[in-house]
Structures are given as C-alpha cells and as structure tokens.
Amino acid sequence: MTGKVLVCGGAGYIGSHMVRLLKETGFEVVVFDNLSQGHAAAIPGVPLEQGDLLDRAALDAVFGAHDFDAVYHFAALIAVGESVSHPDRYYRNNLLGTLNLLDAMRTAGVDRFVFSSTAAVYGNPVTDRIAESHTKAPISPYGRSKWMMEQVLADYARAFGMRAVSFRYFNAAGADPSGGIGEAHDPETHLIPNVLLAALGERDALDVFGDDYETRDGTCIRDYIHVRDIASAHLRALDWMEANAGTHAFNLGNGAGFTTREVLDAAAKVTGREIPFRIGPRREGDPAVLVADSSRAKRELGWTPEFVELDAILASAWAWHAAPGYGPFARNGKG
C-alpha cells in the first residue's frame, strides 16, 4: 500500500522515524504536531501543520485540505510519573485529543488508524514474558489512558467500521542509522539516552533505582526495541488493515531482556567512556522484569526486528548523541 498519510506527533521521537520510513517507502506524508515535545528540524521538507489535538477546528481544517488514506497517531503525553501528578493533562490530551482525531477522521471518511499504545497497559506483570493476552491492569494514568483508548477503538470499529491497529511498545531506543534524527526529550526520562548523556558529561551521574531485585545482577530487566523496528511494524500495519477488519493489538519488543547494569556495561564498551552512576532505592511500582512476547507481530505481520543486539541499539543512539553538531533541535532549542 502507498498513498497519503497523516502522522500526528510526527515531529517527535518515534513519529519522526515513522515519517522518514514512510517517505523512503514512497508515501506522501503530512505531519500534525503542536511542537510541545517535537522538533520541526526532525522532519525537514515534510509539510507540517502546527496544531493541537484539542482544537477540533484545526483538525477539520487539515482533513479538509488533504485526502488521507490513513492516520498514524503518536501525539501523546508519555511520562508515567508526571501522569500521576497531573492526571488531568493526560486524560485530556490522550483521551479527549484522540477522540477529536477519530471524529475528524469519521467526518472526512478516513477509516484506517494506527495507534501508539504502550506496555504500561499490562501493569505489574505476572509472567516474565508478556503476551497480548496478559491481564490489563495499568497502574498509572498514562497506562490507563492508553488502555481506555484501545477499548474506544474497539467500540469505534464495531459501530463505525473503523479499522485500527494498536502497538504496545516496550522500551523504545536507538536512532536512525543515518544519524540525522534521534531521541531528544525535554526533560529526558529514558534510560539509554540518560546513560549516553552521562557518558558525555551532561549528567552528573546516572541514578540506578535498586540493585536488590531477584535478577541476575540485582537490577531491573527491560526489553529495548529499536525505534526503526517500531516504525517498520507500523508500516506493515497498513497492509494488515486492508486484509483484516476490526481492531487489533500487537506487542513490540525484541524479546530479549537486559539489566540496567548490562546497559551500563554495554554503553561503556560502545562509547569507550566510563559511565558514572549511583545506586538508589527502588522506585515504587517498578517490576523486576518486563520482557515482550512479540511472536504475534512476527507471525501475523511478518515483522522481524533488525536491531536485536544491545550493542547495535546503543551504537546507533551514540552516533546521534556524540555527532559533531548534535542537537540543532536537541541541545539548542526546538528548531
């Protein structure tokens, strides 16, 4: 399938990688982003409609100006801790904003939707490897907002004939192999970029939350999935929806779990630099192990992650962070 697609949140980390892959594959792309977290410099040459999902008129104007075949939705608030402190912001943006988008799609007659969900819908896992059938018991407003939207999508599919695919990411990481775009959140809360910023001397020391878990070295185990592999699964979703009505959910992870100490050791090897860190207490609600069972995506979408080794994921991220001139939109403003 090719055609014209709208990428909401397309100037953000995962969204900009999706935009790049869509362009490489021959799609015509328009980005809708309020630039609160995204960066216009991450999508050079791509039409950008600056607007907010809470502004229904702005959405209607975009759909009125373009004839879209499908919509990708990455425009969400994603910080778990912040969602606990400010649930109002998360439910307003992640629920109401997405409902505005879905209703604008209905008005315009667009019925293909790919949704950025999260492994946070599962809550505290009861199995080491998490399949899509795992109990959904999110423990944060962020996770609940995503799970609620997945249920909304199922209802919209039944009532209005919408076709949708939701992807539940584990830990997105890495950067485009070209080095042109990468991860640049403000503030940065993810482990791998903070490890690399510590290597660059831009962090005093990395905080490791607990070293007394029942894991092979006492630190938490997480599943890191390369952002390019996330984008490739999203691309396959368009053809999947052509052949499969209704709404469907897939896990995206590489199926391998790495401890925090293993990430630190691998980062030291990749960067050739010491990674300063300090051990602190566990964070409340942090499970010992979170690893995806992504066999359904592999089986049904024909998807295979390309970046399965931790060193390769880290090397791509390091190429982005350490490059001369890094940060036309990361360190020096939003471009």
How would you summarize the topology of this molecule?
Elements: E1 4-8, H1 13-25, E2 28-33, E3 48-50, H2 56-65, E4 70-73, H3 80-85, H4 87-108, E5 112-118, E6 129-130, H5 141-160, E7 163-169, E8 171-173, H6 191-199, E9 206-209, E10 221-226, H7 227-243, E11 247-252, E12 257-259, H8 260-271, E13 277-280, E14 289-292, H9 295-301, H10 310-322
Parallel strand pairs: 1-2, 1-4, 2-3, 4-5, 5-7, 6-14, 7-11, 8-10, 9-13, 10-14
Antiparallel strand pairs: 10-12
Q: In words, what does this structure look like?
A:
The protein has 335 residues and is an alpha/beta fold. The protein has two domains: 4-173 and 226-252, NAD(P)-binding Rossmann-like Domain (Rossmann fold, 3-Layer(aba) Sandwich); 191-223 and 255-322, Alpha-Beta Complex (UDP-galactose 4-epimerase, domain 1), CATH 3.90.25. 39% of the residues lie in helices and 19% in strands. The strands form three sheets. Strands 3-2-1-4-5-7-11 form a seven-stranded parallel sheet, with helices on both faces. Strands 6, 8, 10, 12 and 14 form a five-stranded mixed sheet that branches. Helix 2 (56-65) packs parallel to helix 4 (87-108) and helix 4 (87-108) runs parallel beside helix 5 (141-160). The longest helix has 22 residues, at 87-108. Mean pLDDT is 91; it is low at 331-335.
